[in-house]
């Protein structure tokens, strides 16, 4: 951490501040310039509240040098984390295709979709049971019943299942779910993150639509600080001024997250663009950028889906995407 | 709602689509142009899933005409809502000053601040007990103990109190709290909103840092749909590319929310700017723009605050702001 | 165009407004609903100033149905435009690699880079002569001398050249330049666009860092309206709240622009990320998303480049990217 | 400037880098930590290309400590700059009201508006002659003729005039114009800025719709570096995800620009909101936040304005705003 002092600060004031740093166990290095004095701080700077420091009258600005996330940081864990879900691996060179409907609607629907996406190459089945909807008047999911239907589809196809949690009180219902998803709107629902840190389930954490990569990794850190280190990061588009697409897929987040963290990074091309016809180009681009997996919405009958039909692929379209994605990975992994 | 069809759609396809609309109880008005055919729909268009409609092959785009919020909409409730909190009124020409520390830290601290902000003109006392923090390693608040201390400060000063809830499981602890605050990060924690809709407490709902006004009002709608109509909207800055300020106070949101909704609108100048020295100009500008109140962080000793000291005013600075704000309101209310 | 009237508008007011539309040669279709009356307009709605219309007291909102760009619109020109630059084709299945230094620095430098990028597979040589810099104190390019050196490099290697124009007064200097580049900051320098519309040179138009796709295509329209239809669109990253990367590459813009327009779309991965180590993943992702070309900064000695060295590849790194890109295109073009 | 080195850098590498800094005349202060080594640099760091430095393999990151603008920086010019335009003062406690139509349309129109805004309290007359329009098919202004009509209106009313320049080639036409306006889209048209730096006219520089405050001040710096120090900064709304308003007025920019710079700051509430009914609340809020002036669009007949009628006030509405603004200033200036 570096503290820049204002012009005109007295030697006594500098000395007092340095004493204050030293009582907090930090080493202090002073560089006096013509216009500014800079204090470099070495040690465990987490003990310093930087905003408090910035509020002092003699301080012009404070610059943070190290990232505040530890468990998620590649600096301290150079090797890729590989998440093993019932034999399906994600990360460290293992690419996972997650597919299924936005919402679980009925037993036939989820089993039909599960069988078709499996045949097309999917490794994991997704399906929404609890649905976060912007409007209270929209379909909110089959809830508990939806999870039971997912478990049936898992028995039939053998595919591990992933579904979203919206409330830590529902955790018991997720006992047979293989991966728990945290939605973008709950990325900073810290009470929920803490509860998930106490479980031993893999967590797929979606990036909030306006959260930067540091905040994203800090939310992973919340879960990891509780002892659960099996986190899959999911980029699903951010909010920008551009309105032709629902969100703007931040494709650069894939290599940047790989640089900052050892956790696997999956991309959701369905919510990023919000249109079925964008899913193929965005899937290929995510694979080419080095993503460790894709989470794609597939519906047996998109025009009658109860939610988000506009962005769902048919199983046939999904097959086409899956085939091309495999070829892209062959190119990039060599 | 207006549905625009693609160039080259056949009469039969148009007829089929119109039949489908009619079975949903809608009136249909067709305008055929050279390049495009437009179908106007009259009736309860909430029954139509617009994203599904957009996904149909013959549809180019769908334009929504009416806002999806009903209870919060001024169109159906022309008069301002006035919230009465233990005799303190907010909205409809009543301006409320809410002040207090970011975090409750101790009995002396909260009582000292409460007495000082009351003397300076505050109507309601704020204080954080449960604190949402980006980092799991930061101070998370005194929790239950913090609420007890707030209640003591209320007894001493008579000021109604407001504090933030992070988890519906904590609702019992809020029995003696006068206004429950929902933080920006929980604006779309729909399960929490639904639980608050079942209470009879006034709710101060903060706008998410990247949510537009429609989403903001839809979240108010979640609470109102449950039967609790006492909502105070709070603008607290949005996330933009600009980095000199922590957030960008969206001052236009004040008159726009008043136009769209009958609910009172309060501004938080402390979190908007993230710097104590911005609180005064932002407070005056919010009052001048027609806000129904301000929520300002005040600490007896900002440089030793456990959280957000950088943006806290001293009681003396708060008094200066409060006095000027009163004069601004005299100008604007005439 | 659709005009939505306010609740309570009288029949006479509606009639008057419809007369006004009819005098402008438009067909009018009225749909009266319980809460709202909607007027559909068919014909050449370009004659209507929509903001004026919205300002009328009886009008609630105006919805635009068709895009305001005509020459650039795929609706009226279904086939891909192919730009031929001295035998190098861009668009319609032809992929072009544009490479070279941010700034032309000396004869040896530009010829060395030109020869190396050619050997690595580049089709066109880029190099900055006039440099737009945020600070007046930064290196502003070799200007006229830079263009002369580019022309020398062209003679030696046979590669067509592209360089940026900042001022229409310099057009004479561009007589032997093959493609004229308009930088992001000049995307809405309309006087410059108009002058370029009078030339017969291919124009590579970069998207402004905060311009949406409609504005981008409207700027192409400015040039095309003058008679010059040889436009190459270039996505180079947009400005968002995320700060780990210099800009956010809007990868969805590639398929969206292809849908909206017939013009070729090239991606600049160097400015998008602002870091050499992001160029490879972003290049591969752009090729996978269907881009018609890439424009990549390559420098013989990045650590001594006079500008933007941080984002320049060495010729060896460029060769690696070029080889992988070719393989990606083989996958996607099948 | 502070350079942070990567973990594992050798002493020899550090020594070499420090030598390189010293050859550039900089003092070097090294702080070695457990995980990181930090090099503080004192002296004229403008000589260092920070992006180049960041690209070095041993460098993790570079932190800039001082702002790169000098002439515009309050640090080196503590007193407010006051711009005197023909006796009308702006800045340093002097508040200026600039009003007039978006476009000059005819002699009667501009003279009528000029007389009415003068009577209502305006100090300076605005009017567009050269109009930057997103679409090539929209009205582009009366150009030279428009300037002549403005000069006539000045003769009749005595009001100084301001109008926008789009092309340095037109400078001769601006000989009798009192303030030259640079529009938001030209804020980084550096060639234009350089030419304006050679004139002795006050320049009203509008902030680009997606430029941060540093870039804004760097553009002022471009003009000032040429010798013209009479710059008026104009905040006119930035581009965000919010779509209910055309732009988002960044009200915090007013106090922040006053802190960073000594130049006067004016607000344009008409373009910020894009709606006449937002002009009053935004004007009052700008005055309350400490702006040195307002630039407001006023038209004698907004519903027939050739451009931007939707955001124009009538002279009567302007009078009401002007009267309230005066009272707000009385409150804030005490």
Mind explaining what this structure looks like?
The structure is a homotetramer of 334-residue chains. An eight-stranded parallel barrel of chain A has the order 7-8-9-10-11-12-13-14, surrounded by five helices. In chain A, strands 2-3-1-4 form a four-stranded antiparallel β-sheet. The first copy, chain A, folds into two domains: 2-63, 2-Layer Sandwich (Alpha-Beta Plaits), CATH 3.30.70.1140; 83-333, Aldolase class I (TIM Barrel). In chain A, strand 8 (124-126), helix 4 (144-157) and strand 9 (161-165) form a beta-alpha-beta unit. The two termini of chain A are 40 Å apart. Chain A is built from ten helices and 14 strands. Chain A has helices at residues 11-23, 50-55, 107-120, 144-157, 190-197, 213-225, 253-260, 269-273, 276-288, 315-333, and strands at residues 2-5, 27-32, 37-42, 59-63, 83-85, 88-90, 96-100, 124-126, 161-165, 179-182, 203-206, 231-235, 265-267, 293-297. The longest helix of chain A has 19 residues, at 315-333. With 334 residues, the first copy, chain A, is α/β, with parallel strands linked by helices. In chain A, helix 3 crosses helix 4 and helix 5 (190-197) packs across helix 6. The mean pLDDT of chain A is 91. Chain A is 34% helix and 18% strand. Chain A binds chain D through residues 2, 4, 7, 27, 29-36, 38, 40, 42-43, 61, 63, 65-66, 75, 210, 239-241, 243, and chain D through 2, 4, 7, 27, 29-36, 38, 40, 42-43, 61, 63, 65-66, 75, 210, 239-241, 243.
């Amino acid at each position: 951490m570096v503290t820049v002092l204002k012009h005109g600060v007295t030697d006594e004031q500098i000395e007092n501040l340095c004493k204050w740093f030293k009582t907090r166990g930090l080493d202090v290095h002073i560089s006096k310039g013509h216009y500014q004095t800079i204090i470099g701080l070495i040690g465990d700077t987490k003990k310093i509240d930087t905003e408090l420091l910035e509020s002092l009258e003699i301080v012009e600005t404070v610059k943070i040098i190290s990232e505040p996330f530890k468990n998620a940081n590649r600096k301290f864990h150079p090797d890729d984390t590989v998440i093993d879900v019932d034999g399906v691996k994600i990360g460290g060179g293992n690419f996972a295709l997650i597919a299924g409907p936005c919402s679980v609607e009925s037993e036939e629907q989820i089993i039909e979709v599960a069988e078709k996406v499996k045949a097309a190459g999917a490794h994991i089945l997704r399906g929404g049971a609890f649905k976060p909807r912007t409007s209270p008047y929209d379909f909110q999911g089959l809830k508990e019943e939806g999870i039971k239907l997912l478990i049936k589809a898992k028995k039939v196809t053998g595919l591990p299942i992933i579904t979203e949690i919206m409330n830590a009180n529902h955790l018991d219902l997720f006992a047979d779910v293989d991966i728990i998803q945290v939605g973008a709107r709950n990325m900073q629902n810290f009470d929920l993150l803490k509860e998930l840190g106490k479980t031993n389930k893999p967590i797929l954490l979606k990036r909030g639509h306006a959260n930067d990569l540091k905040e994203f990794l800090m939310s992973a850190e919340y879960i990891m600080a509780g002892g659960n280190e099996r986190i899959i990061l999911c980029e699903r588009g951010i909010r920008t001024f551009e309105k032709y697409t629902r969100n703007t897929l931040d494709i650069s987040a894939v290599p940047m997250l790989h640089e900052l963290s050892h956790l696997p990074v999956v991309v959701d091309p369905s919510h990023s663009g919000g249109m079925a016809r964008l899913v193929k180009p965005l899937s290929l681009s995510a694979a080419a950028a080095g993503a460790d997996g894709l989470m794609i919405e597939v519906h047996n009958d998109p025009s009658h889906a109860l939610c988000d039909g506009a962005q769902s692929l048919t199983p046939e379209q999904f097959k086409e995407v899956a085939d091309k994605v495999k070829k892209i990975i062959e190119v990039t992994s060599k």
